[in-house]
Design goal:
By secondary structure, the protein is of the alpha/beta class. It contains 7 helices and 10 strands. The protein has a single domain, classed as Spore Coat Polysaccharide Biosynthesis Protein SpsA, Chain A (Alpha-Beta Complex). Strand 7 and strand 8 form a beta hairpin.
Length: 202
């Protein structure tokens, strides 16, 4: 089914970085801001559209991204309810794509080691399956990004707080396709300055 091969990506990057002490989206990792690594990876993948959900300090972040915000497949959404948790960003992104796309992939804005090849591998495995949810795993440990089909959109619109879609995954095991990922560092997310130093060391 051709329409099954149309997946939108939603990058969740609206948070306040409370554990970080400053907007971590703008922390430098190598020659790019932390958020740019994920954004570039998503745009290099086979995702049909990429929605970037910003909230806290969105003006600063947009200025830092500069001309990248003009990329043709990219749409930017400002979630003004970001203090209510990650679920609000997830829903703000989903509202932009739910009518036009059969499925959506949720990506974290602080996962700089993620590779576009891994995104494409997850997409291909999901497209060729009958499942409604796809999660990457490494030796039994689940990571991100995750994919949900249209069948799960109503459930996604009911989640609340900072849990995102984790509960939907755990409550619907029969719908889940787990895909093994070879490099667990792709799951690494940045929660503290120490995490940033550790990843820079790699």
């Amino acid at each position: 089914m051709a329409h099954r091969k149309q997946t939108a990506g939603v990058i969740l990057a609206a948070g306040m970085s409370q554990r970080f002490g400053q907007p971590k989206q703008l922390s430098k990792l190598g020659n790019k801001h932390l958020l740019e690594w994920v954004l570039d990876t998503a745009l290099a993948s086979r995702l049909a559209k990429v929605v970037l959900v910003l909230g806290y300090e969105h003006g600063k972040i947009l200025r830092a991204l500069g001309v990248k915000t003009n990329r043709p497949r990219l749409q930017i959404v400002i979630n003004r309810r970001y203090p209510e948790g990650q679920s609000r960003s997830l829903q703000a992104g989903l509202k932009m794509v739910h009518q036009a796309f059969y499925s959506v992939m949720f990506l974290l804005g602080d996962q700089p080691r993620l590779q576009s090849g891994t995104i494409d591998h997850l997409l291909t495995r999901f497209w060729n399956s009958e499942k409604n949810i796809c999660v990457p795993v490494h030796r039994g440990v689940r990571g991100n990004p995750t994919i949900f089909s249209r069948a799960m959109y109503c459930k996604l619109m009911t989640v609340h707080g900072d849990f995102g879609a984790r509960n939907i995954i755990s409550e619907n095991p029969e719908h889940v396709l787990s895909v093994e990922v070879g490099d667990p560092t792709e799951f690494d997310d940045i929660d503290s300055p120490a995490d940033l130093v550790r990843i820079q060391g790699r």
